[in-house]
Amino acid sequence: MSLPRTLHALAAAALVAAAVLGPAGSAGAVGAGVAAGAASAPVLPSVDQLKSALLTANDVGPGYTEAPVTGSPSPSENPTPVSGCDALNALITMHATAPGPATPHAETELDGPDGNPMVTESLAAEDSARLAADFATVTDAFKTCHTITFNAGIGDSVTFTVTPVALGDRQDAPAVRLDGTLAGVQLSAYLGIERFGTVGMAYGFFQRQGADAQTASMQYRTAVAKVERSLGTTAGSTTPPTVTATQGMSV
């Protein structure tokens, strides 16, 4: 049984769940959003601009390294990563199996010493109507899940209690804390989502043998501030970022 592997599986599954804000999205919102605003759809930030807005190892502090981006797990790699929470399980299944349109998307994983703690961040851009629907779906999942089990392989699973929390300054930004134990080792996570006009952010902080709420909140606030500064927008805004694909951006 590998605790680091379990921690990484938790991070991957949670990031995939929150990444419903990204390429797959909600099929129901696509038609309405495109039909209503195709002619006046805003220009979305580019992939390079989203990458520039992500946290780096220098942003989160000494001892962190940037993990190689391996992409989202496929259904064949882990067909049922979540149980005990139908809402999040549906989000993961939808993201893993639905093709979805191509949309700008970038993500990162920053690992502390021996992978502890881990910080993940995902940014995705899509039209406002679709993002609003996706954001509402994830928000509801956070509110309705009280326990959740992540499966990290044969004989490797952990059940977490889910508690709503506030990670940043904006009280309406959905966030939860997860607490569980595996082989006597405490595992915890903080998950948060935020929107910046046409950009959705998914944030995760994962830790074993501890639950450092102060660091999780500090790094979440750092992530929010960097997106605001990089894209020229504010957290919670429904107005598209002022930095768009046609404006260019220094990296």
What does this structure look like?
34% of the residues lie in helices and 25% in strands. By secondary structure, it is α+β, with helices and mostly antiparallel strands.
Give the C-alpha Rg.
17 Å
Mean pLDDT: 75
Number of strands: 9
Name the beta content range.
15-25%
Shape: globular
In the predicted model, the low-confidence regions spanning at least 5 consecutive residues are 22-39, 72-80, 97-101, 245-251
How are the SSEs placed, and which strands pair?
Blueprint: H1 3-18, H2 27-37, H3 47-53, H4 57-60, E1 65-66, E2 82-83, H5 86-97, E3 105-111, E4 118-125, H6 128-144, E5 147-151, E6 157-164, E7 175-182, E8 185-196, E9 199-208, H7 213-231
Antiparallel strand pairs: 1-3, 2-5, 3-4, 4-9, 5-6, 6-7, 7-8, 8-9
Task: Please provide a brief summary of the model.
The chain contains seven helices and nine strands, in the order ααααββαββαβββββα. The chain has 251 residues and is α+β, with helices and mostly antiparallel strands. Strands 1-3-4-9-8-7-6-5-2 form a nine-stranded antiparallel sheet, with helices on both faces.
